[in-house]
Specification:
alpha/beta; Rossmann fold; seven-stranded mixed sheet; two-stranded antiparallel ribbon; 9 strands; binds S-adenosylmethionine
Length: about 290
Amino acid sequence: MSSTANDVNAAQIEHWNGPAGETWVKLQTRLDAQLAPLGHLAMDGAGLRPGESVLDVGCGTGATTLELSRRVSPNGKVVGIDISRPMLSFARQRLEAAGFPQTRFEEGDAQTRRLSEGGFDLVFSRFGVMFFADPVAAFKNLRAALNERGRLSFVCWRRVADNPWVAVPMAAAFQHIPQPPPSPPGGPGEFSFAERERVHDILARAGFKDITIEAKDMLVGGASLDVTVDTTLAMGPIAAALREADPVKREPVAHALRQAFAPYENADGVRLGAGVWLARARSGNQK
Ligand SMILES: C[S@@+](CC[C@H](N)C(=O)[O-])C[C@H]1O[C@@H](n2cnc3c(N)ncnc32)[C@H](O)[C@@H]1O
């Protein structure tokens, strides 16, 4: 998908087709290991049955799409949709290795793409729904893809303060380099769904019914101190700030991150708190 100035999500399309998408592909094994238990919250909470059809929104490199395919097999159908070419290309390679003939990946903007109307039992996402320029329009579009029994189940991040895995390294790194300005309130971004009321309002305005939004907490982190520091330097707000900073700052930032993460190291690696919303709803598309 080549973005044009007219694409409502042009900036995000550019972002996820640039270094962000490439880095995600490079680090996918460790990212999937960290995020899997959080994605499982939204899968386990969706009441999935074999034979059902699922839309995986912002499916990225496809780990969740394949796990959903396993859960609805043998007769179920899963479509993963994403705007990132490098991530989809990796997802397709994984699909080829895994089988699942009824699963496919589609390149497209989930906010605007015409999706098979009423074709899905479940709209699912693991951290793929916080990047829409117009979230109400996007969720209306997603609701239209659900049948009358259709459900929505996704996880998104709560506030930075509820996520020590982000807050702790940010506090350490931004003593050495300037912190980038926060994204405008309500604009697309990793933490744009941090406020429960906002998420509820978006889903209600999009027409969803029986909305529940629950706080869930888990521990996440890399398999070792080295891996955790390396990942933090490679992606997210600290990586973005480092790209703008004097290259000599990289070493002191890496050192500060090591010191900040060290108290959270245990036999499993590094583990810090992660706070998400598990949002679920019904389509309300009764005929
Ligand atoms: C944080 S990543 C999560 C990827 C994947 N769900 C996972 O958990 O591994 C966010 C994903 O959302 C995708 N995305 C962002 N805006 C999108 C849009 N408007 N339509 C479809 N996908 C989008 C990005 O390309 C990226 O793959």
